[in-house]
Fold each of these.
Amino acid sequence: MTTHVLTLSCPDRAGLVHAVSGWVVSAGGNILDSQQFSDMAEQMFYLRLHIDFAGEPTPDDLAVGFSLVADDFDMDFRFFVAESPMRTLVLVSKEGHCLNDLLYRQSIGALNIAIPAVVSNHRDLERLAQSYDVPFHHVPVTAETKASAETHLMQLASELDIDLIVLARYMQVLSDETCEVFDDRIINIHHSFLPSFKGAKPYHQAYDRGVKLIGATAHYVTADLDEGPIIAQAVTPVDHRMTPADLAAAGRDVESQTLSRAVRLHAEARVIRSGHRTIVFD
């Protein structure tokens, strides 16, 4: 069974749901699930539909048919094949907890992604990737080779037909050009509740401040470092008895879970960008 997901955003006005659902019926579709949100402050409307269409239309076919409705209501929209795994390139450095979680969830079908390769600027996690039969690419990065390394990365993404890049604790900053090419298609995990504790040794910073909660933030990557739209966040309680090492251990769990949740939401087309914010239909 092949089904499709339609996501859209447009200025809010009367008749939107009627127009969209009417087109679905006329196109031979049956709505399996519907989620919508009207942002009263911004006067914007957001919709996610899961649809079963008769026959085997492609997303391009559906987009052509829907364009008349979209033009009438100034809609920004996309169609996705719901069952098609999103081809995902995972970038890592030396810490493997997020990578391991993504690889495991993919292997049991808990994430609608396919990971054709793992790229790292170190070799520490090569055996982990190989244990899941995922090709590992070692692309060292220095100040002198940073530009050529990123060119290599982009070539690999093109060759593998990559839909999504995930920074699973990849400790390199991507160029503005790469962020622009993969706009809203790069997800990063930040080891704190942004904007708190940026920079080096975040868990030492948290320890020094005597925090009672630590968290993680998964967000889209933009040219502004750690300022991209937030997709998912989570926290876990801590207390005065915990050392920085204890906080880091607890943080690894929440980072892994938060990143995997953000990847799942994106891969299932449940996230719609709204300026610096996101609308998430979980």
Note: The radius of gyration is 20 Å.
Amino acid sequence: MPKIRAVIFDFYSTLVDINTNESKKEIFDSLSLYLQYYGVNNNAEKLRMALQLEKERYLATREEHYPEVDLETVFKNILRKEGLDNPFLAESCCKLFRLLSRERLQLFPDSLPVLKKLKRNGYPLAILSDAQKVFCLEEGEILGLNQFFNYFVLSTYFGFRKPDPRLFTIACTLLNTNPAEAVYIGNDPGTDIKGAKQIGMQAILLDREQKNKDREPKPDYYANDLWEAWEWINSGTQF
């Protein structure tokens, strides 16, 4: 295989250790109280149902094999039906929803050290993730990640999700790298490895809990942590 010249990462569950629970009742209790200040009197249950219906309507308009929902647009549609055309309010609802649903947000211990190694050795880096643009970039900034990446290729910018090969092509094009000379690091065989391999990229399956070794498609390399991924990239064993 050709030498690796660029590295593209998944974001959540690869670099970022996150856990969310979007079904908690208190999320919608707090959102409905917040919206009262803007004249919206939907109770928590009505707001929950409105959010679910608008997500379904939005996805039904996407003529994609792997459609992605844009939460900010969904909230804009909900608020517009209440007579509020306020982009800032839609954004703040998204961020409040995220904050209330978030139970853990932190880096894996190896994330920053390995990114520093890659950057120091001159590898161009990008993020390719199924993520909401309304809070992913801010979370990257909070965690100190954004400084390492030339580009963030997020599914909500395009309306489709992994494993759609177009996302992987976009990331390689932005980094001006032939797909065969780029490696994608992700934790899900069915989306991360499949998408990368479809365009001829090399792929590392990050399997921190060692649960995915028997799943297809197979990666070029299995890594139990990012240090193992770094060692494989740096060793040149992919030749």
Note: The chain has two domains: 6-19+105-235, 20-103.
Amino acid sequence: MTKPALLVLAAGMGSRFGGLKQIDPVGPNGETIIDYSVFDAFRSGFGRLVFVIRRDIEKAFRESIGARFESRLPVEYVFQELDKLPPGFTVPAGRQKPWGTGHAILMAADVMDGPFAVINGDDFYGMNSFQLLGHHLEAGGADCAMVGFVLKNTLSEFGHVARGVCRATTGGYLEGVTEFTHIEPDGAGAKFTGDAGRVQPLTGAEIVSMNMWGFTPDLFSHLSKQMVSFLEKQGGDPKAEFFIPTVVNALIGTGEMRFKVLRTPDSWFGVTYRDDRLRVIECLRKLIQRGDYPEKLWV
């Protein structure tokens, strides 16, 4: 069977981080978070890389990131641009924000012909997470998958974060994802601040989505239809985004796809805020000392 592909979403603007965080070094030899994700994917059975980037960062991205992998496995690039829309739709005046993760994944429709995983380029997911997802995809079943993280293992001490809190059945299948847009640590747990400042306590043990998914190519026909529906209803809103959890919830609701929840013990970390970078560097240093990663990834 063909090895699964890894689709890396790396077209984000990085507005809160304050720069092009996809190519910011965090490892002891200049490695980026993407380097660690690709290293974990490579040793977990993935056989191909596809990057979703923007045209304006293509040269810097290829030179700083892509060139490291092109001698090791097949690498392709697809481009998320505001004007890459279904026939009949145009970019509304004033729109600058990308169309969201659902739109980003749709950009890879013409290059995916087998099972594939989706990750964010600026998130560290951990070796166990890639092994769980790689094993699921290599098994070749019809079910899709979501890697579920424990909420308390995904928070930032430098600001609030958005997390998709998951509902799973006793059989381990996802029932839905609810987006909580303002979650912060709170003692041993966490808290969500909603509309009008209303605070909802969270235990920290909730299972959340960190946008680490496993799909079959059947996803793309559903994505295309839902993208059209999104544009018809919200395309005029300059801040509206087409998120993959929205697509997943709709597919679960209609019974068209099932999503196995793969629970990982790994801790997520990333660079949502610029101050997160020092924590990422320290976490990676500890993982290297523990023997999870070599001092230099690409020898």
Note: The helical segments are 33-42, 58-64, 101-106, 127-139, 219-234, 244-254, 276-290.
